[in-house]
């Protein structure tokens, strides 16, 4: 691993926590006002964190596919 990669991992962890705190509560309240079930609320709460973690795993494929194609797909 390159020397500074752990800084990127730490940033991603704090980024996913802060993102879920800032937007997660509002999203949960919105879904709750629409009458969503507990299962849907759980999926809505977990989805942003899962997608942030998957960005780390997918970052290795950006060079192969090209940045524009990767983002569009």
| Overall mean pLDDT | 80
Structural class: mainly alpha
What's the gyration radius in Å? 16 Å
| Envelope shape | elongated
* Main sheet record: none
Question: Hey, roughly how much beta strand do the residues contain?
Answer: under 5%
In total, how many beta strands? 0
**How many helical stretches?**
4
Helical amount? over 70%
Low-confidence stretches: none
Order of helices and strands: HHHH
N-end to C-end Cα span: 27 Å
Brief description of this entry?
By secondary structure, this protein is mainly alpha-helical.
SSE arrangement:
Elements: H1 5-33, H2 38-58, H3 62-65, H4 67-72
Helix pairs in contact: 1-2
Could you describe the 3D structure shown?
The protein is mainly alpha-helical. The chain has four helices and no strands. The two termini are 27 Å apart. The model has no long low-confidence stretch (mean pLDDT 80).
Sum up the structure in keywords:
single chain, 73 residues, mainly alpha, 4 helices
């Amino acid at each position: 691993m390159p020397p500074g990669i752990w800084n990127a991992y730490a940033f991603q962890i704090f980024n996913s926590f802060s993102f879920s705190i800032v937007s997660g509560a509002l999203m949960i309240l919105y879904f709750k006002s629409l009458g969503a079930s507990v299962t849907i609320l759980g999926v809505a709460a977990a989805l942003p964190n899962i997608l942030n973690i998957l960005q780390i795993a997918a970052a290795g494929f950006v060079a192969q596919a090209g940045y524009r194609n990767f983002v569009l797909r």
